[in-house]
Amino acid sequence: MSGPVTPVTIVTACFNDGAYLRESVESTLAQTHPDLELIVVDDGSTDPTTLRVIDAVEALGVRVIHQENQGLPGARNTGVAAARGTYILPVDADDIVEPQYAALAAAELDARPELGIVYPRADMFGAVTGPWELGQFDVGIMLTGNQIPACSMFRKEDWAAVGGYHQVRLEDHDLWLSILELGRTAYRLDRVLYHYRQRSDSITGGMAEEDTVRALAQIIRAHPQYYLDNIEQLIRIRRDQWDTLQHWKQRYGFIENRLHQAAPLAKRLLRRN
């Protein structure tokens, strides 16, 4: 006879995402996990279509929380704070989840108390398609950039212990490092269970290089002890990156040399023309 099932809450923050919300909600309602709660946080949406879709979703029995716009970290915090689930799974309002995701992730957290984060393999669809490369958890990679997606399951008690999502540019990266600092670790499920929508209006909306540097510096300043405790892992990753760079330089460096050699000839030909 099986024991009690750990309750899971899926939190979906929505700000004017009415074009995609219903499809996302339908995928979360199709989860096979038997004890599931879905909370949609309307983060001050102003688009009439979105408001109509939110009303329709609420009519399906989905719990909806309306609030003034607080941004993504604030909206997620609202949803997690209201959740009855022991485990939390954020799902963006324009993404789609496979039916087994919540059950498989919860089973890992149930079986392994050292785990604080479980994330899936994933792919991209929409304006850009293809695999979303999410490797197995590596502390060194987490120190140089976030390898854990926002759509990862975590324990509500850990979220509370670290003060939830903070209002920073890289709020997911910040939360994951905070949970890892509790002594937890992370694990990737070896199945594609999440579909990340690439929208044409957001493909070029990433941070500029300077902003990325500032955001990562903010992360490092917020977690100095974790970086110090894992400095060997950071050095290993940097060394591996350097070795990879040198490998490709040796393999294809002759192309650069040929281009340099051809440059004077090209200039002479242009002058003649």
UniProtKB/TrEMBL annotation:
Keywords: Transferase. The keyword Kinase does not apply. Residues 9-136 form the Glycosyltransferase 2-like domain. InterPro entries: Glyco_trans_2-like, Glycosyltransf_2, Nucleotide-diphossugar_trans. One of its GO terms (molecular function) is transferase activity. Coiled coil: none annotated. GO terms for biological process: single-species biofilm formation. The keyword rRNA-binding does not apply. This is Glycosyltransferase involved in cell wall biosynthesis. It comes from Allobranchiibius huperziae.
